[in-house]
Amino acid sequence: MNRRDALKTIGGTLLAAPGILRAAGRRPGDKPNLLFLWTDQQRADTMAAYGNRTYRVPAMNRLAAQSIVFDRCYVTQPVCTPSRTSVMTGLWPHMAGTVDNNIPLKPETKTLPELLGDSDYRTGYMGKWHLGDEVFAQHGFQQWRAIEDGIYNGFYSAGRDRNARSHYHHFLVRMGYKPDEQNFFGRSFATTLPVEHSKPSFLANEASRFIFENRNDPWILYVNTLEPHTPFSSALNDLHSDEEAPVPENYPGIPEGGEPECYRRRRQSAIKDKPFDLRSRAGWQKLSRHYAGLCSLVDQAAARILWALEASGQAENTIVVWTSDHGEMRGAHSLQGKGVMYEEAVRVPLLLRVPFRGQKPQRVLPPGSHIDLVPTLLELLGKKEADELPGRSLLPFISGARRENGDVFIEWTGDQEDQQESDARTVITPEGLKLVLHNRDTSVLFDRTRDPLELQNVYAGAGQAKVRSALRAKIEQWQRRVKDKMRLPA
Q1: Largest CB tally within 10 Å, which of 18, 257, 426, 470?
Q2: Can you give the residue ranges of every domain in the chain?
Q3: What pLDDT score does 14 carry?
Q4: Pairing between strand 122-127 and 433-438?
Q5: Where does the pLDDT of residue 111 fall: very low under 50, low under 70, confident under 90, or very high at 90 and above?
Q6: DSSP state, 324?
Q7: Which of helix, strand or coil describes residue 478?
Q8: Following DSSP, what letter does each residue of 88-114 receive, concatenated?
Q9: Is residue 63 a contact partner of residue 322, using CB atoms and an 8 Å limit?
């Protein structure tokens, strides 16, 4: 959208804003819109609502101040494709068969727009998908704006054009850039660009256009940035000082009582990361500053999208969600990335703003799970029949009701071709106990009320037998309920 078209669209929208819903025969709460903003690899503690008052993320902080903040939201599996499956479909990764990265979502597996099944809605998906056939519209989404291509074209379905490029690729070509790798732009190339040509900014432009163009119809729009995912670099690398983006408190943080061998292998792999010398605290400090800059890069884009929602007169009839597909260790326990059951990898932000319900900003303290997102959103969109899904609506939580079973479960499926890799199942209780059972590796038990930094694995501790047994029984009961067949360790 050029400047003239933008001003024309915005000007017309502002004049029409008060009557938009009336002209469409809708009142706030009647066929509400859904704006689903999510990131890739964003820890919970990256915004003020979760204790971080130094990252420069004013849009996130403003949204959180207007929202229901879920204090302890957990992913279903701490890695991209499996987690995205649950966010989009409401299914556990093992149910959908997407237990590892780059396993495509089956055509018959329904996403939220397909589950809703309302043809009145205009639907859009913009950003990283990572559920197969990356650049092609699918699964109930009419408008598609991809930002990733060459890294995924080896995973396209049979018959798909492997030379097809993302919308972001074509945007960069129009801006005068030339592809740097086999006729596509690698992820590292994007990190060298000015803010206005970054992936988040591209998505902000496209999302804003969608919001304005569909202002007379109900719509569902998902916008997913790659950032703050690796590579940890952007035009905002030096925006934060060391004091504003410190190394985590639990660095180096090797737990007493042992940890899984697979975690130690991940640690050794991280130390070899070439962009940063992670053998020293200085390397982790640099990584932390770059990571904070990526969060700010996302924030400026989110601010523009939320502005478009406000300027178009649709904010009062739009559900807004903010979350991430998993967290990022960023030096906690001397680890980088995800794929472990430490809090930094499995806990993510979850904000929910539902203005037409008259819902005041509040904080939900009991633990919740991504598995409950789709049932919650379907209920808010007017479809309460979600019996086929394993999750349950979070709306009773918001009203202050207590769940009969407030435990949260997380799964992990290791590389099945690697005999050293282990599967794991985790339960987290409202009281702060976390049990991680590995079938071919060391198991872990943390009492987070006494040990919030997870520095003491008390699994083998004296007097823990009853605790282990009770928590194991919870996992076994969950496995029966969701037909999970992983064999727990003896």
Answers
A1: 426
A2: 3-406
A3: 40
A4: unpaired
A5: very high
A6: E
A7: helix
A8: HHS--HHHHT--STTPPPPTTS--HHH
A9: yes
